[in-house]
Structures are given as C-alpha cells and as structure tokens.
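Worked example 2:
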Amino acid sequence: MTGVVSHAVLLVGVVLLTGQMCGCTADAGRGDGFSVELIHRDHSVKSPFHDPSLTPHGRMLAAVRRSTGRAAALARSYAATAGTGSPDGGVAEVISIPPFDFLMYVNIGLPPTRMLVYADTGSDLLWVKCGNDGTTDLPKAAGGAPPRVVFNPSKSSTFGRVNCKSGTCHAFTGTGVSCDAKSNCKYVYSYGDGSETSGVLSTETLTFDDAPGGCVGCPGRPQLQVANFNFGCSTSTKGAFTGDGLVGLGDGKFSLANQLGAATSIGRRFSYCLVPSFVNTPSILNFGARAAVTEPGAVTTPLLHPDVDAYLTIALESVRIGDRSFTLPQRARIIVDSGTTLTLLVKELLDPMVEELTRSIKLRRVKSPDEDLPICYDVSGVGETAFGKIVPEVKLGLGGGGVVTLKAENTFVMLREGTMCMALMEAHKEDGGMIWGNIAQQNMHIGIDLDKRTATFASVDCATSYPWPTPPSASL
C-alpha cells in the first residue's frame, strides 16, 4: 500500500522525509544478506487473521473487496479534500477494511519482542504499537482491532527517543511533528483514506532471523542485528491496522532498505517473490546480495523520481495483447505496490485492453460475485489450467525497453468455484495514478535497488525457485 500523499487505492501518508536519517550501527550480520517469510494475511494458516471457515475463493474475494472498498472510500475522500491543497484539508473517511495483504516478523528491542507487522512497498516508516513505558499509554485503536502484541519500551535496554530539535525529527515536515513537554519528537503519520498512526519517534535495536518463523537466538539461526534504528513508537491508531505495526519498504529515507543500507554492508536493495494464493508455500523477501534478480529473461527499468518519497515508480510505455498495441498520449507512471491486490489502470488504457481480452476469450460470461469486477467467465467446463491457456498474454513495455509478460494468473482471479474474473480496475480520476497490484506480481522475482535506482523483473515459479536457505551450523 502506498504511503505519503494521494494517488490511487493506497494508504498514503502525509509525511515527507528528507536528508540522511539513519544513525544505525550493525553489530552482527551476513555478508550475503538475509531472507524473511512473507505471510499472506488471509491465505496462510500462519496468519492470525486466517479464517478457516472461508474457502480459498472466499478469501480471495475478501482481498479483492479490500481493494475495491478502498477505491470507493478514497474517491469520496479526495472529493472531500478537492481544492484544499492539502491531504489534511478536508474530512476523510476512515474505512474499516484491513488495508494490507502481507505480514512479516520483526524482533524489536533487547531482549527482543517478536511482532507481526504488515509489509508495504508503498510507505517508508517502520512503526509498532507501543505502551507501558511510564510516559506513553497503551495504544488507542479507533475502528481497528486491539493489538496482538504491544512493545513495552521500559523492558528494553536499548530504547531511545528522538529529540524534537534533531535533524531526524525535522525531516517530518509540515503538520507531521510536534514537541512534547520533554522535547520528544511526536509524530502523526496520516493516510489518504483517513487512517493514521501517531506516537513518539524513537530508536531501537532490530534483530532479523535468517529463516522462516521460529524464534530469536535459536541454535543454527544466523541473525542480523541493527542498533539505533529509527522507528515510530505508536501510541494511537485509527483505521484498520489489525497487526502489531507496519514496516515500510518504499523509497523514503526511513524505509527498512534505506536504513539497513546506511547501517550495514548489504546495500539498499531488496527483492520479493509472491506465490499464487492457491499455493501452500510461503512467499519470500530478500535483502542484500540475495536480492539480485539474475534469472534468464530478467528485465530492468529505471526507478523514476517519485511524486513522494515512498512510491516505487516506473514508466509504463506500452501494452501489447496479441497483435494489438496500446499506448497513452504521454509517458505513463505506475507504482509497484505489494499492498494493493488489484491492478489499477487509467480508463484510456484499461478500456481497449478489456475490449481485446474479452474479444479473445470465447467462454460464457457470468454474473460476478463483486460488482466492481464485472467481467467474469464460467470455467467449470474447462478448468483453471485450460483457462490459463485461453487468456492471451499481456505484455507491458517498460521504460528502458524491457518487456514484462502478464499471464492469466496475473490478470484473472477465481472469485468462486468455476468463476474467473478480470483482476483489473479503473484508477479513479481523483487519484491520477496507476498501480501494479500484487495479483499481477505473482510468480515474478522483483528486485528493487535503491542504490542503482532500478527495478528488475523476472518470470519464475516462486514456490519452487526460491526455497528457504539452509542456515549454517553456527549463528553469526
């Protein structure tokens, strides 16, 4: 989900971060980087939000409705703020739909508290729910679920607060920060749909385990430990933040990749590979040398200077389906976002694409389970595999000349047994931006290099191509 100021169906924060923020130091680490597990909030049995009473199709429908529900809420929110010149200038609607799809574990403090946070390539702040340190109260949630785990700063030997006169605090410009009576840097991180988190900007030690799940300090489990990491110690949230916090993987100075790059030798790069929702295998998130995308057919495109720091933005120059090509009057920009389920395209591009796809698919149209995804087909007679061979590939021409191919699994999704629906949606005029959602990213190894300012894409089978690394016999 994108953070920081407007555009599309993304949670968008109002904070702009500038300058070099990280005062981190790493006292242990891996030369080749490390990997963590990405847990889908609906589909994975490891998720505390997994509902076993739902079918796989029901879980996918719930994820789609999160995207479509946010789109409608944001359209109304932008209409309310139109002409104010500020995302805070109007009354925004707070939605109660959980806004993110993927979770990961973060170990914070010494001794560490293990917290399950949302992972988001569209924002740049890592924050967790805090309380009981003698100066902050337990988090208050308006419209959101109570936290599973609350970080208690008083129990950590390495917790610190950022002074409101420091350069780090000054990076939170505008209405985002203030000083409390003890000169601590208080922040508010607001999102375009009305959700927000607020608290005290702080520093802590983060510990990352190089293996899926498990515990800190387990034998044979290498770790990366980073001290003095800047994060938000959140004491109040509103909106649907059902996890313990959020880690921003975007392009801002406070993002995880940027702070790790400043503190360690692994560089400012990460990659991820999302398995399809129906595959019972974890997705993977890599940092450092492991983030290199070297598979055959990999294509690289420049990261564009974003409208705001958090966005991972690239150029979309053309779309080709069969022998037909579609272009926009001007060079289009699209945000690569792991937190949005659907792909959102402007009407000028979406309409001819839909026309060509529907012309090519010779199956019976059926009523959709969701009114916002109206183009659905009855595949009960052919099966999902055969349907994948019927749907033409969609080739995206990116800046720099590279072409990425979207297969049927990237453009269609099964919303109920025997019913496949097109997973493309119109980007609202109020937003003005396009989003490459996570369904369209499935079975791709996607690498983001913030040092080289590039994004690289390779078509792979994420379930088999990126098995978890086997930890060495001794911890680092």
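The chain is about 15% helix and 30% strand. The domain at 296-465 is CATH 2.40.70.10 (Cathepsin D, subunit A; domain 1).
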